[in-house]
Amino acid sequence: FGGIALAYTGSKDERRVLIGDSNKLIGVAVLKSRSLSLNEVEGYATMRNLDEELYRRIAANREWIRKPTIIVALVKNPRVPLDLTLPLLKRLPTRELRVVFRDRNLALALRASANKLLIIRRR
């Protein structure tokens, strides 16, 4: 119980540690914290050790997903599930699509979709 309370009220550094906790409820509590900033969410989107549910919650939040850097962070993270990243590809600028296409750490399906979008945008 103490971890969840700390996730809601803790400092930025405490939240950064707690988001990676193996208990998913603590990570969810961190994302619900009132003092959470967009830059922190962007940092969490780049982390590769989070539970899949946390990436889903980040992608489901309308306010957060409006920020292009959060979209880029989610798409470039190989741990984020394909069903979240594929729809976000369309919202990436052409330059970032090239980066995704060349990134060997990402899923083949994601890279192939990025390539298709690049071909469509060239026309």
Structure description:
The chain has 123 residues and is mainly α. It has 10 helices and no strands. The chain has helices at residues 2-9, 12-19, 24-31, 38-46, 52-60, 62-65, 68-76, 82-89, 94-102, 108-122. Helix 1 packs across helix 2. The longest helix has 15 residues, at 108-122. It starts with a helix and ends with a helix.
Count of helical stretches: 10
- β-strand percent reads under 5%
Q: How helical, in percent, are the residues?
A: over 70%
Order of helices and strands, N to C? Answer: HHHHHHHHHH
Topology record:
Elements: H1 2-9, H2 12-19, H3 24-31, H4 38-46, H5 52-60, H6 62-65, H7 68-76, H8 82-89, H9 94-102, H10 108-122
Helix pairs in contact: 1-2, 1-3, 3-5, 4-7, 7-8, 8-10, 9-10
Quick tags:
elongated, 71% helix, 0% strand, mainly alpha, 123 residues
Would you kindly provide a brief summary of this structure?
The protein is mainly α and about 120 residues long. It is built from 10 helices and no strands.
